[in-house]
Amino acid sequence: FLHFCLRFPQRPEFVRERPYLFSMVYALPVGLLALHVIVMVQALALPIPMLQERWLLDRVELVYLAAYFLLGAGILQHSYRRAQAPLIRQQLKWVTWGTYLSIGPFALVYILPYFLGFVPTDWMKLSVLSLAFLPLTFGYAIVHYRLMDVDIIFRRGLAYSLATAAIVGLYFALVALAADLFRNHISFTSHSGWIVAIILTAILFQPLLNWFQQRLNRIFDRRRPDYSRTLVEFATELTTERHMGRLLERVTDHLSEALGVDRLAIFVSDEAGGLRLAQSRGPDALGPLDLAFLDPAEPALSKGYLFFDSVKQPAGYSPSAQGTIERLGLHYYLPFKLKERTLGYLGLGKTREGDLLSSEDVELLRTIAGYVTIALENARLYESLEGKARAYQNLKDFSENIIESINVGVIAVNLEQRVESWNTPMEALYGLPRSEAVGKHLAEIFAPSLVAELPSPSEPQATLSLYKFRLPTPSGRERVVNLSLTPLIGKEGRVIGRLVILNDLTERVELEDQLAQAEKLSSIGLLAAGVAHEVNTPLAVITSQAQMLIKQIPSDDAKAKTLDRIIKQSFRASEIVNNLLKFSRTSGSEYLEVDLNRVIRDTLALVEPMLRASKITLNTQLASGLPGVHGNTGKLQQVFMNLIMNARDAMPYGGELTMATESEDSTVRVEVTDNGVGIPSEYLSKIFDPFFTTKSTSRGTGLGLAVSYGIIREHGGKIAVESAVGRGASFRLEFPSVRKAVH
After folding, report:
1. Long-range contact pairs involving 383-387 (C-beta distance under 8 Å, separation at least 24)
2. The CATH number of 592-741 is which of 3.40.910.10, 3.40.1130.10, 3.30.565.10, 3.90.1030.10?
3. Is residue 199 pLDDT above 70, yes or no?
4. What whole-number distance in Å separates Cα of residue 110 and Cα of residue 297?
5. Given CA atoms 380, 382, 383, 387 in this order, what sign does their dihedral have?
6. 703: DSSP letter
7. In terms of pTM, does the model score above 0.70?
């Protein structure tokens, strides 16, 4: 009893600091046992009775009984004063006063007078009836205040009773059997035979007790067979669950099924440090919940869980907390505690039969709560990691989207000059898919001319800028790019690679060239206007005076030939001036919808005799249903005439001239192709310049293609040439079409 008082409901602080007190508790009874043995041995050895010694031992034993019970009551009273949980105080109050009421009258009325030498009277002996208060008060505390679990007490008591009965029967059976077998060899009236029997029965007692306990547990727990092992195995499996919602759902489902509990709830801590109801079954969770009673500093949680015997207005809490406790209807709250942090609480109500959980159930739940705590922490860490991974992926996608949205080529390379990133504009610029570029060294991708310009990997901080660099591509076409190279800096401020940015200027350069060409034409136009006014007048004077002189000189005179040459060259100069005027004049001619096929046929009708005389075969491939273009027939005819004349001059020994038309989307194309001598590649960029010509001065002025270029630009069109020496030339003209086709 004193041992129980030192441990219930938990060891007091002075006991925890002095663990040797438990040994001292058993020192006095061991001493009394030794005195009894000594007296018995002396009684057997001496023929005289030892009444005085036995009477003294009886008095000492009674004093020992009273002292230990009263000391135990004092310890319980000390625990009662320090306890703060209402249920614990009620338990301690009943067992403390029950002990005082049971042992006090008996000690005062019977034990004390008997110890002082008085002979007990019948009235004194009646005081023993007060001892009945001890089992009565303990029984009331057990039933009403859950001091202990009645079913567990009953099972253990029954197991001990059955084991004791079995061992006693076995003991006497062994003695009888041994006496019958060895009666001729050993006298079992001697102490040795009894000692052997006692040792054998002592060895067998614990196995028998365990056997009876297991059988009784199976009988009483038939509705929940081996549920404790099942729950522990389930709790072990929980540590592999990573999803918070599934984890909490599995916990509530398994506990409800195994314990027969319909009201369960799991509260988890939130980022603000409070608690929220994360999973429930049965409790009324509508409306706000005041969970202030689930404070880790709550004294009632010192025993490992919070228990409410009654959920109706429990004492010691605020009205809002009392309302929450009553609404939830949960009697047990077990914390999910990890070191110094409380991750949440598991709340459980009564069983479906209306019973409270047994202490074994509570201890099992405390074990399971430890596994759930680990699983909760794992799930939280996993969700946190998953969230960070999503954030990283979103950031990565966002960064890649930015890079993809930039209309310049971006390459990220590591310190080993290997490609880590290659965006879509870079694919379009260089003509190499990302899948073929990533992971390769820059020297495996780009031409040596570019690689030679890049800084050495040993200079990670180096930068580079290349302006209008001509970049060879795998397709063989050159791209004009502005290239910038800069170090790629990581979070720690260290260089982790390089960023190469290529801005494609190819189309821009082409437009600049066309603009320069247009500016040249504009300049020539201004010059031509000046020439027209300044040159035409003296040319007219020279021509008129020469014509007057030639009329005054006989035709056979040598001077007449000279004057004739002057007149011809004057007319030639006048023709040049007129061409310049045509080139410089901003036409006010009417622009209408024009059928290019008709314009080409009309032009060919004019030059066809000339082409036949030059042994040139004409091949026309004019598309039917060609859409019309918005233009001036005379100017367009001048363009085609210039191109045909140039083709004739390129085929001095005859050849083939092809005139073809086609339409695509909103564009009409005209292609003029010859198989003549061709144009050297170094001249291709100059053929539209005014006064540039590859012909002799007697056959060309260098203004034909320049004038044609200006006319085409006036019509919103484009002209391009492809040629190689000995392979002829092909001029491609493009004009914007009007909406409807011309038939």
Report:
1. 383/244
2. 3.30.565.10
3. no
4. 48
5. positive
6. -
7. no
